[in-house]
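Translate sequence into structure tokens.
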Amino acid sequence: MNVTELMETLAVLFAILILGYAAGKWKIIDEKGQKAFSRYIARIASPFLILSSVASDNLTGEKSGIFLVLLAGIGLYAVMPLLAKLLVLPFRVPKGDRVVYEMMYIFSNAAFLAFPVIRTMYGDQGVFYAAIINIPFNLCIYSYGVYSLMKSDGNGGGSVPLRRMVNPGVLAAALAMLIYLCGIPVPRLAVEFFSMIGETTIPLSMLVIGVALSFLDLRELFTEPRIYLFAAVRLLVLPIVTCLVLRLFIRDNLLIAVVALIQAMPSGTLNQVLSTEYGGNSRLAAKGVFFSTLCCIVTIPFVAWLLLI
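Result follows.
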């Protein structure tokens, strides 16, 4: 593990966020532009990133071992929605903001930030594990997450037609799982195409968060106690508890470390992107992403050190 490289990766991503903030303040990107970028990320770039994660030659290994990784991911995103509802209760979160807080607990920056961090620490095999875990992540965020946001948008409990949950993210995640499990070969040019489009997700996501923050009064970040409590639980409590629980059932130390690091990531940028797209409180989501991303520069190296104990 190269701690210097880890810190450099976090610093570059945060610098892109600051650039987005400046672009918003200088009116280079206005609110309409931010929403257009959000639609591009949610409907094009992120789905292509999902496909590229399973289409490349980097995914190698025994299918039996991969099913354990996939099972760990399914278990994680089956438990987290229930746990998130419990975590929100003590903080007395206003009803209209509960869904966003729940999503910020459930969905960390599992790809955009986790992939480069895990690659720095554990190489290609770690990224491979993270990519497999990212399949149930994407199925969950683009189904349960989108459903929850639409359900809370305006009517606080109306039904959401199933066809509205069939979106590019769900389709890409399902196709990615089919490609991997069936061993479907993907042409080299298609892999390059998926990768080039998908890789725009990471810088644009951080840029969009920065632009969204430029429309906020940043003083609000430091006057809302819930953000502090959320960041502490998201960045420290969840990864430590996850690690301790997994050690009771799993012997694969790499798998435990990868899952714990995914839990140690800040709130995912897709929370803000999808809140903008589907009617959630995107301002609150932007605050959560910004503050937890700021704090993770310190907390991720700390969690990484704990994993070595």
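Note: Residues 114-152 form the longest helix (39 residues).
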